[in-house]
Amino acid sequence: MALIVAILTVICTFLGGLFAIRFKDKLHLILGFSAGAVIGVALFDLLPESIELTTKTHDIRIATLLIAVGFAIFMILDRSFSIHSHEEEHCENPKHNSGALGATALSFHSFLDGVGIGLAFKISPGIGWIVAAAVLAHDFSDGINTVNMILKNKGNSKSAYKWLVLDALAPALGVVVTLFFTVSAPVLGLILAIFTGFFLYIGASDLIPESHHRHPSFGTTFMTILGMAVIFVAIHFAG
């Protein structure tokens, strides 16, 4: 059953990425939506799940500390490898790559989604379907976000397709990997806390400024709020 869900995650993620590539001329609006979606996933999905999995064995301050650690780690990587794409004459931190670091983080998150699905089905089919529903709810946005990480940093469509394929296959690979090992719920919760910090940084410090860089409009702001709202509603009805 978990393998069927893995196939569905591949389809949902790939469709989201194709949407982003097809409408890249409206990239500032898609970036705005992606920013809200990434922040929504962090606040409405990863954060509650992390707290729920860890509070029985760890103080909640451990989870919040790891969120801050995740945020700081991604900030250091961002400053070191210059993920952002501002190429203005006076920019002190010019672009050095095509967003591969951000796309890698998103793909690894998708891999962990698959791991979560696989481990949840090992606990019980009921829990497995709950986790699967939550993952499927935001996989479409995952595809959009991965493609945007490449396109917004001047990557071409061919490169975006490659990263999209990786991100789409990542959750299926995560499910397959769980056939060979298992981890405790608290450990999984601590991992999710770190990724909460990653996603808060990506959304608030990268995607939002980038979406407003050339189009500081009401429409972009609205799309960011819409992205958060869509994720909230999707996760609410999924879980």
Question: What fraction strand?
Answer: under 5%
User: Tell me about the biggest sheet?
Assistant: none
Overall domain count: 1
Helix vs. strand class:
mainly alpha
Q: How many angstroms does the end-to-end distance come to?
A: 18 Å
Rg over CA atoms, rounded to whole Å, is 17 Å
**Tally of individual helices:** 8
As a percent range, the share of helical residues equals: over 70%
DSSP summary, beta strand count: 0
Structural shape: globular
Poorly predicted sequence stretches spanning 5 or more consecutive residues: 83-90
Order of helices and strands: HHHHHHHH
Mean pLDDT, nearest integer? Answer: 79
Describe, in plain words, how this protein is organized in 3D.
This protein is an all-alpha fold and 239 residues long. The chain has helices at residues 2-22, 27-54, 60-81, 100-123, 125-151, 157-177, 185-213, 218-238. The chain starts with a helix and ends with a helix. The protein is 81% helix and 0% strand. The longest helix is centred in the C-terminal third of the chain and has 29 residues, at 185-213. The protein has one domain.
Summarize the structure.
The chain has 239 residues and is mostly helical. It is 81% helix and 0% strand. It contains eight helices and no strands.
Question: How is the topology of this model organized?
Answer:
Layout: H1 2-22, H2 27-54, H3 60-81, H4 100-123, H5 125-151, H6 157-177, H7 185-213, H8 218-238
Which key phrases capture this entry?
mainly alpha, globular
